[in-house]
Each structure stands twice: as C-alpha cells, then as structure tokens.
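Schema walk-through. Below, the input block comes first and the output block second. Nothing else is stored per chain. Lengths vary across the set, and this one has 262 residues.
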Amino acid sequence: MKKSVYPSLPRPALLGLALLLSASAFAQTPPAPAASAPTQLETVQVQMVKDPAALPYEQMNKVLSKLQKFGEGLVRLDFKLKHKDPNYSGPAPKLALISEENYLPIRMDSEGKFALPILPPEEAKNADLATNMPKGSLSISGQLEINVKPEDLDMGMVRRMMKIGHSLRTEMLPFYLRWLMPQIEAIKICSPRPEWELNWRENGQLMGLPLQMDAKARQPAPKDDKVLADYRCTLLSGQERWPDSAKLIAPEGSKLSVQLSR
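--- output ---
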C-alpha cells in the first residue's frame, strides 16, 4: 500500500488541532484509485479544513488513547460522515481502516455517526482511513460527547467533569499550544422543556432549586421531534455553591454535552 505524500504536522500541533472538538470539520483528500480497480477502497487522508497537512491515523490513534486515559472514561470523541452534495441519493458511504495486514470496517448508524477504534501502536502506524466514495465527496466532523446520562448527573460529577476538561488541555498539550483548544466552560443540559431542578437533602429536609435557562445556549432537536426546532438549555459550571450531592432532575429526552468557550 502506498504511503501518503502529504506532509504531517509535528506531534504537539496534531494533538492540538485534532482536539478542536467544537464540531471541527475534517476534509478528505485521498489519492485517486487506479482505473483498473474502481471498486477498491481508496486511501483517505483526514485533515483539518484550514490546514493542508494530513493527519495520519497513527496520530489520531494517539489522540484517542490520551482522551481515553485523561478523560477517565467519562468523555468520548464521536464522528459523523456525510456527503458534501445535499442532493446525493446513491449508495450509503462506507468507511474502513485498512493496512497491509488488516481490513476493519467502521460501523455507522443511520445518521452517519461512528466511533474510531483505538489500535495497538504498531498496528496504527500502517493504518489508513478509507472509503468507497469518490475523492473529495465526503466530509467528516468530530465532537466531544459525555458518557453520563442526565439522571446520573449531580454537582459532584459536574465538578469532576470540569477537572477532566482542564486535564485534557494541560496533560495533552504544551502551554504554547493550549490556546488552540477551546476550554470546557460548563456542562450543558438541553431539554424539550426548560424545566430543570437540583434536589438534595439538607438537615433532613429535601431541598429543590429550579435552574435558569441560558438565553444563548441551544441545541437542535432530534429529527423525530416534529414540533420543536431546537431545545433550550441550562448550564452548570461547577462553581455554584450547591453541594456535590445536588442531583439533576430534568425532563425526559434531555441530553448532556459540553459548553466550549465562545
């Protein structure tokens, strides 16, 4: 299998750019497949839209490994694949990790969302992300997601998540590159109805505190919601005075995400 002819960024820069997680878009610039094998998966180089340097899978593998380590299993990086042509109606795109020894299909859901695996370091060195679609026809975006359900969130977990966000910047990036990565400012709770509350016990009494809606924070509603275009949200930064035991009570269908620095 041919090696990429594109230059790669230094390791710290790759980590910094790959961790621009506020739905940062990636572009694909694969070499054209040979005319004699039009159905063969072509090698895809995943790179940041604003930078011409390629991001080899070895570097992405390091990012995913560090995210798993410093994220303590509470965060993950999800990806979404879509066709650049909004009117495209052909076969569904397929993705795979290929090397001289292995072929690993990447499973996607109906919306094109998928996760990238963490490979053994030696295997990742020779792996490439591949697709069966024509060169430059697809786009990939990545976003940081939370592995915590709304019903499991309390203020103690919020504060733990904020520490993790700080660790992701300080442990994975040198100080001169930290400005490239947005800071996690808060945990965002978005719901079909703006009805949130924190409950905790104090001196034997059950305390309840309604949470205020953030005027700017919104999230697109799921496709199956035929009534609302977007969900309203509230934010918890961990700096609030409420105890760690204060537990979130949120409407059914709520979703947690991170609020990055604006």
